Amino acid sequence: QVQLVESGGGLVQPGGSLRLSCVASRSIFNINDMAWHRQGPGKERELVATITSAGSTNYADSVKGRFTISRDNAKNTIYLQMNSLKSVDTAVYYCRAESPLGINYWGQGTQVTVSS
What we know:
By secondary structure, the protein is mainly beta. It has strands spanning 4-7, 10-12, 18-24, 34-39, 46-51, 57-59, 67-72, 77-82, 91-98, 104-106, 110-114. Helix content is 0%, strand content 49%.
């Protein structure tokens, strides 16, 4: 089992940046995909970015060129660097990890609010 704790959310002005972190309770070395999802007000949860154990990344079209996902296996942590933030990026951001058995684990979420 893996417990995930997100941090780094907050209030930021449009055009600003934030970096989210997700720390796992155990080694993520053999974790398959890790990902960030988000759920905006009145919206369904959507996939933002994924990163495989080999470091390959994939992004939703809405964040390509603005967001960067990365992982540090030594620190059991993944990150989401978010630049050029827009009001539509306002959401609760969730971290997800997929175990080698295909079980998905979720963090509790961190709120990101983009507003002037």
